[in-house]
Amino acid sequence: MRSEELVTQHPSRPCQVRSLHRVTYENGVALQETLVAMRQRESVPDQLLLLEHPPVITIGRGGDIRNLLVSAEQLKQRGIRFFETGRGGDITFHGPGQLVGYPIIHLGEGNRDVRKYVTRLEEMLIRTVAELGISATRIDGKHGIWVGNDKLAAIGVRIARWVTSHGFALNVDPDLDSFGLITPCGLNDSGVTSIARLTGSSPSMEEVRTILIRHFSDLFARDLQTKAETLRLVKVVVHDGDRVLLLHRKPQRGDFWQPVTGTIEEGESDHGAAKRELLEETGSGLDPVPAGLTQSFMIESSFLADRYEAPVVASEVLYSAQLSRNTPLRIDPEEHDDLGWFTFREAYEKIRWSDDRDALELIERKVATSP
Amino acid sequence: MPTDVVMPQMGESIAEGTVIRWMKKVGDKVERDEPMFEISTDKVDAEIPAPASGILTEILAAEGATVAVNSVVARLSGEGEAPVPAGAPAGAPAAAPPQSSTASATAPAEPPAKTAVPAAAATPASPQAGANAAMASDVSQEASGVSPSDATPVAKTPVPPKAAQTSTEKTTSTDASSQEDSGNVAALDERRRTKSSPVVRKIASENDIDITQISGSGISGRVTKKDILDYMEAPQAAEQEHAQQPAVAPGSRPAVSPMSFKPGENVRIEPMSVMRKRIAHHMIVSKQTSAHVTTLFEVDFTNIDKLRKRYKEHYAERGAKLTYLPFIVQALVSGLREYPILNSSIDGESIVYRKDLNIGIAVALDWGLIVPVVKNADEKNILGLAKTINDLGERARTKKLSPDEVQGGTFTITNPGIYGGLFGTPIINQPQVAILGVGGVKKRAVVIETDNGDAIVIRSMCYLALTFDHRIIDGALADQFMAKVKVAIEKGQFTL
C-alpha cells in the first residue's frame, strides 16, 4: 500500500478527542465499553481517548500466560496489576510515560478491514515518531511499530459491530525495565524501546499527543474536536500516618466509603477547592498538600445524567492532609452519614473505586517513605 | 428455519479467522445481532453478532479452531425447533464447562449494570459488567474489594487466581477436545494444523513448511509461533525440509552422481547454509520448469545519466541515493503494462496474469543472494522507487527484511553488471516467467545518425538481457517488450 493510500477515503467525519490524565485500567475499560455501546447506537460521534495507565500488565485472550515471567507476588511488590483483556494480541505492559490511545471509531462501508485499520494505526505512529526524528517501521507478521528489533509501540485492537476499541501504546518514556517481567507480545526475539531511549531526551507527553492527533486526523479523515472533561474534581486523602479518614456516602448518594472529594468550582483553583472541601466535609481548616497525581474516570449516575451529557468524564487532582485522629470532625449531613479512621489495609476493603485505591496506595507509599 | 453462522470476512486480504470464545453454548437462545462468539484475525479480536434469532444447535468450530472465511462455524435453528441432542456437537463440551459463568455474565445485551446503581455527584463509577466478562470479574474484585475473608487487600491480589483460572480454562477446554480422538495420530496432526494460529499458519505456508512435522509445545500439541521459528532456525529443519523435497517435487532434483570424499583427502568440506540449499534448489527447479531463452538489447543510458546528475543532490537531500535501478524499474513498468504476459505465471495449463506489478530486485550478499520485492512499482515515482530500493537493499544486507518483503514478486531484475560484467543470462525466479539482467553501464563510442550524416559520439551504454519462459512467451513478443523498455529508457521521460 502506498502511504497516501493509507488515508481513509471518505469525507471527514467528526471525532471527539478526549485528552485524559492517569486512568486506572479498570476505569479505562469501563469508559471504553460505555463509549463503544454509545457509538454502536450512534449516540456519540467517533472518539479518540488519549491517556496514561498506572503500571499494569495485560494479556489478550489469545495470549499465553507463560509470557508472564514473574510471580503474582513479584508483581504485587512492584505495584503492577494484572488483567486479562478483550483485545487482540498477547501480553503487554502499560505504565506512566507511555501514551495510550483508544480510538473508538466506526469503520464504515469501504473501511471494514481490520488489517487496514491496524496498518493505519501503525502508519499514524510511524509518522508521529518520524517528526521526533525516529525512523520506525512495521514488521510483517508482527503488530506495532519497530526500530530495528525493538518495539516502540504496541497495538491491540478489539472490534464489535465494526466499532473499534483498545488501540495502541507508544513508549514515550516509560520504565522499560518493567517490560522485563514479560515476553512482550509473546515475542522472544525482540526488545522494547522508547522515544526517550532512542533520542536521548524525552519530549513532553503533550508534544507527542499533539503530533499524534494531527496524523490521526489525516489518516482516518476525521474532523477532530477537543472534548473537555465534564467535571473537575479534587480528592483529599486525610491520614494521621497510620490510618486514613473515609467518609460514608448516604445511600441515596451512592452508599459507599470514600476519601474527601468535591468539585472544583468556577474560578476556583484545585488547591482552593481541596482546602474548601476539606473544611466543608470534615470541619478541618488544614492546608492540603498536592500529591502529584491527576486521574480521569467516568462517572455513571442517574443523578448526573439529568444534568450532563453522557458520558460524564471527570478529572480529579489528588491532595493529602495529615491530621490527628483526635481532631473533632463534623461531616456534611447532605452528603455523608458516617466517618471512620481505618488502617490502609482496612481502607482498601472499604473503598469502591479503583481510582480511590490507587490514590490511597500513592499516599500510603508517601507516608511510608517520609521521615 | 436453520441458519448457518459463518466465519465473517474481516478484511480484503484476510482469508481465515480463529474462534477464540463462544459466548453462547449449544441449546442457548440467541437473539439476532446479539454477540455470539469472538474471533481473532490478524491479532485483532472481534465480537461477532448472531445473523438471526434462534437456538444454537451446533458448534462446528471449537474454541481455538482456525477456519476459512465463510465456512460454517455454527448452526441456529428457528425458534421452537428442537435443539440437537446434548453431547452431539464437538464444540459444546469444550465451551460449556469453563465458560458457563462467563457466558452468562457476558450476555452482551445486558445493559451496563452500573446505570441502575444510584450514585451521587462526584461519584466515580466502577465498571461492573459489560461485554467483557473476564475483565469485568477482575474489575469487580479489584475495585470493590469484595472478599471479606481475605485479609490481604483484595485490590492487590487478583493475580494468582486469575492466572490459575486462565490456565485451567485453557487446559479444560482443550482436554475435552483431545479426549475425542486420543491416540489417533492423524487426528492429532490434523488438530495441530487446524489449531495453530493464523500467524503460525501464515509463516508455515510462506516458508513451505508442513506444520504437522513440527512438535508443538502449545496446548494439546498446538504449534506456537516460537515452535515454528525454532524449527526454521534449527539445522534439522533444513534437513527435513530438504528430505521432503523429492517427495514434493519428484524428479525435480538433478541426477547428481554420488560423490564421496574420504577422510584424509586434500579437501575441506563445509555443509551448505540453509540459504545456499534454498538457492540451489530453486535454481534447479527453475531450469527444469521453464524453457529458458535469453534475448539481448543494447540500450543507451545517456539520458538517465543526465537525470541522475541533475537530481542526485536533490534526492540526497530527501534521503535517497539515485541509482539506475529506479529508472529501469519505471521503464519496465511501461513495458509490463503493454505486454502483461511478461508479468504472468503458469498454473497447469492456464496463464495467470498478475495484476500487481511487484518487481523483485536481486541483492548480492556476502552469504548468498536475496530478492526483496518492490510492491506495486507502478504506483511509485522515481523518488518512491529510489527510497524503496535503497531501503530494501540496506535491510537485505542487515538481515532485517520481513518474509513478506521477499514474496509476491511478479518480475525480477538482477544486476550482473556491478562487477564489470557485460551481461548475464539469468535464471527465471519461479513462478515468474521473465527476468531482466542489467549489465554494466559503460561509456562507449557509438555511431549515431544525425541530419548532417553519421557521427561517432560517446554514449553511456548498457546491455539488457531478458530471459523469458518460451513456453508462453515467443521471441517476437519478448523483443517487442524489450523494444518498449529500451525506448522508455532512451527517451529519458520519467515520473520524477
What secondary-structure arrangement, pairings included, does this model have?
The complex is a heterodimer of chains A (371) and B (496).
Chain A: E1 13-22, H1 25-40, E2 46-52, E3 56-60, H2 72-77, E4 81-85, E5 91-94, E6 98-104, H3 114-130, E7 145-147, E8 150-160, E9 163-171, E10 191-192, H4 195-199, H5 205-220, E11 222-226, E12 231-239, E13 243-249, E14 257-258, E15 260-263, H6 270-282, E16 289-299, H7 302-305, E17 312-322, E18 336-343, H8 344-350, H9 354-369
Parallel strand pairs in A: 1-2, 1-11, 3-4, 8-10, 12-17
Antiparallel strand pairs in A: 2-6, 3-5, 6-9, 7-8, 8-9, 12-15, 13-14, 13-18, 16-17
Chain B: E1 3-6, E2 16-22, E3 29-30, E4 35-41, E5 44-49, E6 54-59, E7 66-68, E8 72-77, H1 91-106, H2 133-144, H3 159-180, H4 185-195, H5 198-206, H6 225-233, H7 235-248, H8 274-289, E9 292-300, H9 302-317, H10 325-338, E10 344-347, E11 350-353, E12 359-361, E13 363-365, E14 368-370, E15 373-374, H11 382-397, E16 411-414, E17 434-438, E18 442-450, E19 453-469, H12 475-491
Helix pairs in contact in B: 1-3, 10-11, 10-12
